[in-house]
Amino acid sequence: MADITQQMPGRSPATAIDEAKRQKLLELVRGRALARPTDLAEDEVMVWPSLVVVEAVCATVFLLLLIAVSVLFSAPLTAQANPNQTPNPSKAPWYFLNLQELLLHMNAGVAGVIIPTLALGALAAIPYFDRSPLGVGILGTSAKGRKIAGFSAIFTTVVLIGMIVLDEASGRTQFGIGGFLRTQLGAPEFVWNQILPVGIIMATIAVLVVLVQVIFKPTRREMIIALFTAFVVTYIVLTISGTSFRGEGQDLVFPWQLPLEHH
Amino acid sequence: MAREQTLADKISSSSVWRSVVRHGYPDTQRNQALIIASNVFLHIHPVKIKRYATKVTYTFCLGGLSFFMFLVLTGTGVLLMFYYIPAADQAYQSMKDIESSVTFGQMMRNMHRWSAQGMVIAVFLHMCRVFYTGSYKPPREFNWVVGILLLVVTFLLSFTGYLLPWDQLALWAITVGTEIGGAAPFVGEQVNLVLRGDFEIGQSALIRFYTLHVLFLPLVAAFLMAVHFWRIRKDGGISGPL
Ligand code: HEM
């Protein structure tokens, strides 16, 4: 049945009706187009039931879990708010504790506003830098992409923990460099508390980029995987540090040394 | 051979039933298409989709769960609003009352609290899923940006809700949080003043956070979600391997 038009007498292939119309006509002849308005292609399924069932099961399982958790654990309610009694340590909600952790190491405006704004801006800009459709729909794009993600995660975790401990050991003076600039050279606040920490962050990111470039020779997408992974891991490591390892005076402690209401 | 009409058949072919649901039981492809297309809530979906889009191990249900948690939060939130009093000298007591004298009050509060935490986590993980599957690439760039806005609104919803119990945890978390924002160069002090309505956290901050939390931000979130979901369809359904 492939070439009906070509076999029709008096019609050259050049004037034949186009392919789409021909298909429609064939459907009509076979009686399919009318009888089954939603004919499925090979790789398609009907949303009802195939997707609706998945959604219903997900929603039900989650709801049961939520009810179980809510029966077992109660939301915290501490003593009534008292503006005259500052708890030590005072902590922001957990998902902002990463910013509070950053705050310990540099100027508050830089840590609390400028860096998160830049991070959000960079996130939003990703699709405008990486436009190649390669790897869509595949977790981590490729085996190499997944390897790069793993490398970036390990690099970021190790470097961050190292930096937090080092800065703490130097009395939060930017590893002593900031302290030196301030006390020995009399540098102004914005040099040791703004430019220097931002410089250290940029340098760390640059090291990651160079390492990934040299080791993996990545595509643009793979380099962005390295950077995004570094962002996510930073968010998580700083959040854990701020939540579980910062005690009185925001000093570095072990989780079991925290005051009770912060466990 | 015609099978005997059951009670269910009689009900579902009655004129009352048919005035509500215009098609028959969705066991034929035609009715399965109609149920999606003619129901205002279901027609957020197309009638048919690619097979891979139904795989739980592709989306991990994270976008759907974020949305579902938003619905749970709206439901439990409305119930809490019946009892909660956004006044600095009564808020704490009304929380106590919800926990001790309102039927299922503690349960409502727990569900609200835990799904709020859950939503922050789910939205963040959803972003990671979208990233690692490369689902932000054209034509989905704009929906990724809408997603980032949703992430910010989710944080803000959670943050504004944090103050409402008016206990020590709430007061000082918001104090620290607004101080972080207040450190913004040039505009920080003004932003803080607008948020708190005062130099410290008191009645004006509470009513501002309350209004943002129960009205303004949920509306913004719903608006953005409408755009988000619409765009998923306009961008050709969820992404998949080429
Ligand atoms: C309240 C927050 C959000 C809700 C309720 C939500 C909901 C959804 C839902 C239901 C889907 C369908 C597929 C799936 O479940 O994965 C989806 C897809 C998508 N979301 Fe979200 N989302 C939210 C936040 C975000 C964020 C933070 C981002 C990214 C920054 C994002 C970017 C996307 C993109 C690009 C798609 C298309 C994915 C694809 O085609 O595979 N969304 N969203």
List the helices and strands and how they pair.
The complex is a heterodimer of chains A (263) and B (242).
Chain A: H1 4-7, H2 19-30, H3 32-35, E1 44-46, H4 47-72, H5 97-103, H6 108-129, H7 143-169, H8 177-183, H9 189-216, H10 220-244
Helix pairs in contact in A: 5-6, 5-10, 6-10, 7-9, 7-10, 8-9
Chain B: H1 7-12, H2 15-20, H3 29-38, E1 48-50, H4 56-59, H5 62-81, H6 91-100, H7 105-132, H8 141-163, H9 168-182, H10 188-196, H11 203-234
How would you describe this protein?
The complex is a heterodimer of chains A (263) and B (242). Helix content of chain A is 62%, strand content 1%. Chain A has helices at 4-7, 19-30, 32-35, 47-72, 97-103, 108-129, 143-169, 177-183, 189-216, 220-244, and one strand spanning 44-46. The longest helix of chain A is centred in the C-terminal third of the chain and has 28 residues, at 189-216. Residues 1-15 of chain A have low confidence and may be disordered. With 242 residues, chain B is mostly helical. Chain B has one domain (53-234): Cytochrome Bc1 Complex, Chain C. Chain B is 67% helix and 1% strand. Chain B contains eleven helices and one strand; from the N terminus they run αααβαααααααα. Chain B has helices at residues 7-12, 15-20, 29-38, 56-59, 62-81, 91-100, 105-132, 141-163, 168-182, 188-196, 203-234; one strand at residues 48-50. In chain B, helix 5 (62-81) runs antiparallel to helix 7 (105-132), helix 6 (91-100) packs across helix 7 (105-132) and helix 8 (141-163) runs antiparallel to helix 11 (203-234). The termini of chain B are far apart. In chain B, 42% of the residues are buried. The mean pLDDT of chain B is 93. The chains are: A mainly alpha (263), B mainly alpha (242). At the A-B interface, strand 1, helix 4, helix 5, helix 6 and helix 10 of A face helix 3, strand 1, helix 5, helix 6 and helix 7 of B. Strand 1 of chain A pairs antiparallel with strand 1 (48-50) of chain B. Protoporphyrin IX containing FE binds next to helix 5, helix 7, helix 8 and helix 11 of chain B.
